[in-house]
Amino acid sequence: MQDRIDWLVAELNRHNRLYHELSAPEIPDREYDLLFRELEQLEASHPELVREDSPTRRVGGAPVDSLPPFTHRVPMLSLGNAFSEADLREFDTRIRRALGEDAPAQIAYMVEPKLDGLAMELVYQEGDLVAAGTRGDGQTGEEVTHTVRTLRSVPRRLREEGRPPAYLSVRGEVLFDLPGFEAMNRRRVERGDKPFENPRNAAAGTIRQLDPGPASRRPLFFVAHSAGEGIGTERASTQGALLAELASLGLPINPLNRRCLGIEAVIAAIAELGALRHTLDYEIDGAVVKVDELALQDALGFLTRSPRWATAYKYPPDQVATELRNVIFSVGRTGAVTPVAELEGVRVGGVTVRNATLHNEHQMSREMRLFLAPGQPALLDEQGLERRTGLRRGDRVVLQRAGDVIPQVLGVVDRPGREAAPPFAYPALCPVCGDPLAREENPREAQKVTVRCRNRLGCRAQLEAALKHFASRRAMDIEGLGEKLIEQLVQHKRVGGPADLYGLDLSTLSGLERMGEKSAQNLLAAIEESKGRSLERAIFALGIPQVGEATARDLARHFGGLEALLDADEAALMAVDGVGPEVARSLREFSQDEGSRAQVAALRAAGVLFPAIQRSAAPQSLIGKTFVLTGTLPGMSRDEAKALILAAGGKVSGSVSAKTDYVVAGEEAGSKLLRANELGVPVLDLSGLLNMLGTSEPGETR
Ligand code: IVH
């Protein structure tokens, strides 16, 4: 999933650049839109995976589309990561190894706070500030000179005493003052505005606007940490001296930057900084460690996207305790009932958390209480957390939030007498429809129990979710049929299942809130149009548990029609590549369920066509062929290669077996290549693959 998101983000950003900057688009707008939609969809269902550089991010509603592009003459790179002392020592070892005989006995490093703000480049010509740009994808960001020049910490003119170079690009971060951030959010809440999620978003939302007003009023400040161009080894011989040069030019630098001799001193400095971390008026999320000598930096050079001479140490995720106010149970699309903790709001890892999911196997007892059954001996783990008894109202629970990951409840802080109160337990009846809940054990993992409401479309929560899924862009793509509308239709009992959508008429629709006659007509047209959606989309739209888009595509290709699929027994289903016993069982359950069959029949009767698979425009030369990719392919990421194979109708698997048709091997291919040779699976290089695709250039297949 992350791979696909990474690929989409990189690809969309690349197309953005081609389009906006080079005026040389490679793909039609429609294709761009499809990729963009796919990314939006993935991000909506996996908010924890949203990348900072995602093209879907429109921070604070800022009209980023209208900001002009800003090209970095020297790309703004990212940094490798270190998460432990061992990682830091390894970083030091790598550097010594790379320097070989030139390595000094102890390497001198700069240890600097890793400032958690909006990355910024300032450009000075003949001492005057002429431009400011965000990092963007590292090559091209957005020009934000008009907002950045309102910050008092950004000098409009460099100090003469510092002998400004003719051209200087300075890199740093724009930070939001923390007390100011809290105060601003309080005022926003009082006014009924949405509070900003965290200081970094607030900084970005303020800087990436056309209106410079907010930037001039809000407590933002700039801190410099490096130079892109202008001050090199001819002016400073170390990173420390470079920072001093920047300071002498009037640019703010961080007072906590420290020079350390040897990696052990670096480790000690990082620990000290960690202890200070929460006393600062700005957010830091780690420490950046840089080889101090610029000559050694030059000798070490760069990897693809990051320098070999620096790394970013990330502090472990914040943990905080807060009060558990309540546990509510939410019903998902497939009827699974999951507990959600309602918490006294608390800041952790840069955001205020009020809800957390409790759904994971450690937290579920066989008695259907949250956490393990009471009465067992208390067992404190390494962090002194009590994990074994159920959750009670008023408990102090410990939360952790790592980066962009949804908060997790780690455990309960024990206190005398807490076990006197009854623990929260799963309800016996569905909290939405009141049907008795079923308990499904996972045959393979006894700890994993799913509590399910089996009332399906008879349960409002499941009905709404099913309709939302059915109408969604990747399924039947019914434009204009949004969440609010679905809720109204369900509430007024106009729709009891997807098929009923096709019986809606103008007068019913225009009677709904916020629905004019024109939009009602458009919606009816969109519903009508959806009748022709391809078989694979329609299968996906049915919302059969375990059947995602990829499986729906495989099923559509294999069976070619809906009836053949519904008549298939488990053995026939398992004959489809990529369908295992669990998916087969779920499909069978669906096809034998009277209600589900009635829904399908009703869709047919309403005119939904389930047309046999439509071949896409790309030649489907690889249908039925399974590929495994391994090693580094020259000039193409594995994800890109995978996309090409999928587009041509092939499949990509993660491991080599007798069913593998081809292994595509790049440089440094390892065990998969050996296995291919053992099994006698044909091995291709990238050009072999491109030949099969009938193209020599990856771009040409589009
Ligand atoms: S130096 C070659 N120093 O972290 C890249 N970066 O993950 C060198 N950052 O894009 C950047 N504090 O936006 C450097 N003291 C610091 C930093 C810092 C924060 C950011 C910066 C960079 C990102 C890399």
Description:
With about 700 residues, this protein is an alpha+beta fold. It has 23 helices and 22 strands. It has five domains: about 1-55, Helix hairpin bin (Helix Hairpins, Orthogonal Bundle), CATH 1.10.287.610; about 80-315, D-amino Acid Aminotransferase, Chain A, domain 1 (2-Layer Sandwich); about 320-420, OB fold (Dihydrolipoamide Acetyltransferase, E2P); about 470-605, 5' to 3' exonuclease, C-terminal subdomain (DNA polymerase, domain 1), CATH 1.10.150.20; about 625-695, Rossmann fold (3-Layer(aba) Sandwich), CATH 3.40.50. It has a five-stranded mixed sheet with strand order 2-11-10-3-9. Helix 15 crosses helix 16. The protein is globular. The model is unreliable at about 60-65, about 360-365, about 370-380 and about 695-700 (pLDDT under 50). Bound molecules: 2-(butylsulfanyl)adenosine.
